[in-house]
Structure formats: C-alpha cells, structure tokens
C-alpha cells in the first residue's frame, strides 16, 4: 500500500516521494509468531529529524488492538525535540493503515494517529470522499475510510484488492496535489 501511495504522489508533476520505514521494535521470534511480512530491503529506516526535510508526510501502519502499532508510536515518541520547537507545525500529513478485520479498528487507528499530528501542529489532510464511488463499494471487502486508505490484512494472508490499491494511489496523488497547491 505504501508503494502505491508513493506512486500516486509521484504522479504529480514536480513531486518526488521517498519511502522510509520505522525501526522494528519487536524480536524476530514475535514477528514470526505474528506472521509479519519481512521488512523491505530497499526501504531505508527514517530518523525523526528527517521529517523536517519533507514537504508532506504520509504515515502508514498496521493496527494493534485498535490503535497505531508500537513501532510507529515509538518513532513518534522520538520526535519530542521536533515537538518542543514545533518544527513540523504547518506541515501537511496523510495516513493509511491495515487492520486484521472489520472490528480491528479501521477508524480508531486513524484517530489515534491524528492526535499525534495535532500535537505537532501538522495539518491532517483526510481522504474525505474524494475517491468517489470507490468509497461506497459494497460488493467486495475494502478497507479505508474518509480518514485515509486502508486494508484488511486478516492474519497476514490477505492481499490488497485492486480497489484498495486504486484508493491508495488516489490518496497519494490527492494529498501531494494539495501540498503542491498550498506551498
């Protein structure tokens, strides 16, 4: 999903989206028991201070018990120095996520991320209903909401649907266009 958001952002002329991942905080034993996918070898880890070099920040994360995953929370907790001087204030941000199933916290996960953005003074750019009829699809399982793109990962065995990929691409492009327009 992250690569599709990136592809959407890169579709906007003059935009260059970079993909990063946060540091893993769980042991390999726990990750194997969770059936977590392997980390991408071609995606570097981000350091909190790198956020100041961006024009917009998208964050994508899995849900754990209806809230953002501990790895992403640990990353955001490490941004305290940026918070102290409000270095990220006014920077646009979008979010996307995956949950295990319908009761896995699709919107609650999004809301727990938005509170972190608010403390930094960042401008949350929601997807709204700009994805059109895809937002109202009822003939197939589709994650996401007006807060951002999403998917249902189940136990890790589910793959993104074509509709979810289209929604992620749309979100990347939409938020990049708004950022570029307001820069």
Polypeptide structure, described:
The structure is a single chain. The protein is globular, with a radius of gyration of 16 Å. The model has no long low-confidence stretch (mean pLDDT 91). The chain contains six helices and five strands; from the N terminus they run ααββααβαββα. The chain has helices at 2-10, 28-33, 70-77, 80-84, 106-119, 162-181; strands at residues 57-64, 67-68, 92-99, 123-124, 150-152. It has 183 residues and is of the alpha/beta class. Helix 1 crosses helix 6 (162-181). Strands 1, 2, 3, 4 and 5 form a five-stranded mixed sheet that branches.
How is the secondary structure organized here?
Layout: H1 2-10, H2 28-33, E1 57-64, E2 67-68, H3 70-77, H4 80-84, E3 92-99, H5 106-119, E4 123-124, E5 150-152, H6 162-181
Parallel strand pairs: 1-3, 3-4, 3-5
Antiparallel strand pairs: 1-2
Helix pairs in contact: 1-6
